[in-house]
Amino acid sequence: MSRLLLAAAAALAATTALALPVGGRAAAACGTRSYSYAGLAASSGGYGVAATITPLMRPTVRAGHVAAWVGVGGPGEGPHGSDEWLQVGISVEPGRGDALYYELAAPGQTPRYVMLKGHLPLDRGYRVAVLESPARHGAWAVWVNGTRMTRLIDLPGSHGVFGPVATTESWNGDVGACNSFRFGFADVNVAARPGGAWTPMVAGVIDGPGYAVVRRTRGSFVALGGI
C-alpha cells in the first residue's frame, strides 16, 4: 500500500500554503504529486477516530491506488523518529477492485497491508474506526461496523499523542496518473478518552491540486479526486 498517515501539522501547513479554490485548480495539476490527500487532520492528539465511509462513484484508478481511511500516527511519529501508524478503510487498486483493509506500521518494520474483505458493493457505507484500549494505554484495535477486527496492537508512545486523521489518498503510481474518486465521510468522530466518549471531529482540511473536500458540515464531508 503506501507510506501513509502524513504528519498532520506538516500537511496542514503545506496544503494551506498551496491550496487554491476548487474552481481555480488546473486539471493538469492532478497527479503531479506522488501522494495526494483530501480530508481532515486534527492538530492535537486523541484516542481514536471513526467514520462511516461510502464510495459515491466507482473510482477510476489509472495507476497506483486510491484509498479512503481513518487512522492515527504517521511517518517519523514513532519512537526515535520511526514510522508508526494504524489505519482502516477502503482501498482500490487496478485489477483488485474495492477492498476493506487495515494497515499497520510498527517501529522498525515494513508496513503491513491486510485485506479484510474484497469486492465491496458500490454505495454501501462502512463504519470504520481505530480506538485505543481503556485497559492498556498505547494498545489499539481496528473496528468495522461495530466488530473488533484485530487483536490489541501496541503502538509505543502513542497514548494521547497521535492526531486523528480521516482522509482520502491517491498514489499516482510514480507515473503521474490522475486517479478519480468521490467518497462520503459521515459521522466523523474522535474519542475523547481510551475506549470511547465519541465527539464530532474538529480538524483542519488537507487537500492539494486536483483533490478537495466539499460539502463539509459538522461531522461529515465529501472528498473528490481527479477534479
Written overview of the protein:
The protein has one helix spanning 8-18; strands spanning 35-41, 48-55, 65-74, 84-93, 97-105, 112-118, 126-132, 139-144, 147-148, 153-154, 165-171, 181-193, 196-200, 204-206, 211-217, 220-225. It is mainly beta and 227 residues long. The chain has one domain (8-225): Sandwich (Jelly Rolls). The strands form 2 sheets. Strands 2, 7, 8, 9, 10, 12, 13, 15 and 16 form a 9-stranded antiparallel β-sheet that branches. It has a 7-stranded antiparallel β-sheet with strand order 6-5-4-3-11-1-14, with helices on one face. The longest helix is centred in the N-terminal third of the chain and has 11 residues, at 8-18.
Features of the shown structure:
single chain; 227 residues; mainly beta; Jelly Rolls; 9-stranded antiparallel β-sheet; 7-stranded antiparallel β-sheet; 1 helix; 16 strands; disordered N terminus
Secondary-structure map:
Elements: H1 8-18, E1 35-41, E2 48-55, E3 65-74, E4 84-93, E5 97-105, E6 112-118, E7 126-132, E8 139-144, E9 147-148, E10 153-154, E11 165-171, E12 181-193, E13 196-200, E14 204-206, E15 211-217, E16 220-225
Antiparallel strand pairs: 1-11, 1-14, 2-7, 2-12, 3-4, 3-11, 4-5, 5-6, 7-8, 8-9, 8-10, 12-13, 12-16, 15-16
